Amino acid sequence: MRYQISGKQIDIGTALQTHVQTELGEVVGKYAQRPTDANVVFSRSAHEYVCEATVHLSTGLTAQAKAHANEIYAAFEACCEKMDKQLRRYKRRLKDHHRERAEPVELFGAASYILASDESSAADEPDSLQPIIVAEMETRIPSLSVGEAVMQMELAGAPVLVFRNETKNGLNVVYRRDDGNIGWIDP
Q1: Cα distance between residue 13 and residue 6, in whole Å
Q2: Which terminus of the chain has fewer CB atoms gathered within 10 Å of its CB, N or C?
């Protein structure tokens, strides 16, 4: 597994890097046979240290965890515990579905745009109804089952996930509703 351990305006020593590699390697190794890479970022938020970890699995799924603590090692340990919990739940769900993914998740390219917010007041008439594009990026749309899409959305902590439905080959959306339930759009 490849590790990228960095700090935002914090000097990360070799002792902490070695500790992160061994501890995170043990946690991920328990639940994922072929993790591809891990990204760990340390930063400061006032008096607390913040640790953010992202692990990409060979199945195409991504697990993320974030924790705060007064000491940098304690922040990493809390983050590591959250990662352990997420991966344990992910593996349990895979076993509950009695389905092992033999091949990695197929990804399809798509364009992603960031549009400028409308700063003008309601009294001003806009010159045109076309939005102003601030940035254009490449994004990936995974080909998943609905259950895997819900798992991926929960693991990533995202409010919405666009995916290609494996059974129908159409684009679908799962999202977290205001009442806490999960919504699924299948056009």
Answers
A1: 10
A2: C
